[in-house]
Amino acid sequence: MARALRLPNLLWSGLLLLCCSGGAAQAAGPVDEPDLKAAYVFNFIQFVEWPESAAAPEGEWPVCVSPFSPLKRALAALEGRPVRKGRVLRVRLLEPGDLRQCRVLILNGPETEPALRALRALPAGHGILTVADEGVADHPEIAIALGRQAQRIVFAVDTDAASRAGLTVSSRLLRLAKAAP
User: Fold this and answer.
1) Alpha helix (H) ranges present in 21-158?
2) Which of 21, 125, 138, 170 has the fewest C-beta atoms under 10 angstroms from its C-beta?
3) What angle do CA 111, 134, 65 make, to 5 degrees?
């Protein structure tokens, strides 16, 4: 039971640290939805295993996001933070023709369909975690879908989509996932 409680506490501690690191004045106010979702994405990276073949640029963990995504600014605020294996988070603008440079792909808005077409053209086991912001979750390539439920940010995990991408989602993260956002 103590182990089961550790992950939620770790996630919430991480979210609070990320969202409130700007100072005490910010800690007193509510956290903006994009900032909270960006913190979720940051934490998802910690609980997904990538294949060894999913090489990222040395020292970086690239997160690709649409220039029009509401999460772009919030993710950019996390740039340079260590994420895993000595690598730091790097935010790149989404270019569907260059998805192999991404480890995490944030989908939202008009770039979703072209990005998903480009993703389908990649071989199975490509090693790209797809995270959809609200309204984009109806595609079989989406591994994690963010949404709102009863005034809270929730997420759903499609383990089949993650498996096709060559990713393994931690059972600890799966226990926190909702059935559908």
Assistant:
1) 24-28, 33-46, 72-76, 112-120
2) 138
3) 40
